[in-house]
Amino acid sequence: MNFQKICILGLGYIGLPTASTFAAHGVHVLGVDINPRIVGMLQRGKVHIHEPGLRDIYQAALASGNLTVATDPQEADAFIIAVPTPFYDDRTGEYEGRKYKLADMRAVTSAAELIVPCLRKGNLVVLESTSPPRTTTELIAPILARSGLEPGRDFHLAYSPERVLPGRILNELVENARVIGGITPESAQAGADLYSIFVKGEIVQTDATTAEMVKLMENTYRDINIAIANEFARLADRFGVDVWEAISLANRHPRVKILSPGPGVGGHCISVDPWFLVESAPEQTPLIYTARSVNDAQPHYVLQLVERALCGPDFGADGLRGKKIAALGLAYKPDVDDLRESPTIEVVRLLQDAGAQVMAWEPFKPDAKLDRVNMASSLEAAIRDVDAILLLVAHSEFLALKPYELAAQTRSRLIVDSVNGWKSPGWREAGFQVVRLGVGKE
Ligand code: SAJ
Questions:
Q1: Separation of 270 CA from ligand 1 center, angstroms?
Q2: Has this prediction a pTM greater than 0.90?
């Protein structure tokens, strides 16, 4: 298939890099977002998300005339849906006493509805948003069929999961292997033709539901592996072991690759996607459910760690009352500005619920406005007058801080490190007591 013009619905972390990359390869791209504020910003050449290299490639695409941005789609050769699929805040399902979250597919549904009037014979529609199994065939295909055209016969329809890692999106978009699942083999082939415009990694064709499963399996696999790392951290605390040392030793086994414990699993992918499988088949997913519960409970574990560090082993319910704490990092992982589903924000709120006064500092989003989170205006302001410094995210700039310099800027002599970021003896030499997650000995 030949693609002169494509229309990408959703200009977020995936849609915008994808639109910019297609445009950089000479395709005419119409980027569509229903949020007029985002569209306005983009039209003025401003990028609303932080991702290394994105601003440059976006601005070049805009300047070349290959990329335009609007709030409504138009006719095109191909349509890509890259809108968010969060879960509902106010609705849950339940199976045998286990409450699970439910996918909110409203953005996907309305994106498909927006395409209907623009759809023409011979077009290709690709869903990229992470979705429960059978979304392409059972949700998208019937909506698009309202155009009077038959999916798989009059137009191609495929699912192609996005697998890029935030922080490395532009590189992985091009280099990663890409799975394209068509509702027919011809649809898969049309999808492969489209992405071969810029993908250098292998393009593998399959059916739509397999491709949906692949995506969910990848992130669920990672979630479960992080959950076991978090449980190992709790066990290490209990048995007087340094979990980081134990993991690095276990990982010398040729078939073992344990991930890292931390304050929990956040972001818009790994903490969300496993629920799509649980929702689809609650009776068959006890392991996935349990792993989610372990990771979701990790902020509470960090709270206990802080309580023990600040108040000793026999802390009471009021132990943290009046204690001042600096929380460093609110992003869901290092060196990104993304605060979505961030477990670190939950840690801050739990500390406050326990009576602590928390000042948070997030260098990638210093002006973030979050309910019940007090933002400091700088690192110095956050740490100056506190009883403890809590390291929540291993941002490079936090890891680069010099112990003596930090010691000179704060009255605190206690560090609680939930990411094994400040492990060097220099911190102790500078006068800090360092309590690390998963380290039952010092
Ligand atoms: N985390 C840990 N321990 C680890 C690794 C991660 O606690 O050892 C935490 C992070 O701090 C973060 C969360 O897990 O809170 C998720 O971070 P991540 O780097 O593992 O993944 P994401 O969510 O940024 O991106 C994932 C990737 N999926 C896989 O690696 C299987 C990416 O390739 C996907 O494209 C992306 O989800 C997505 O969009 O689905």
A1: 6
A2: yes
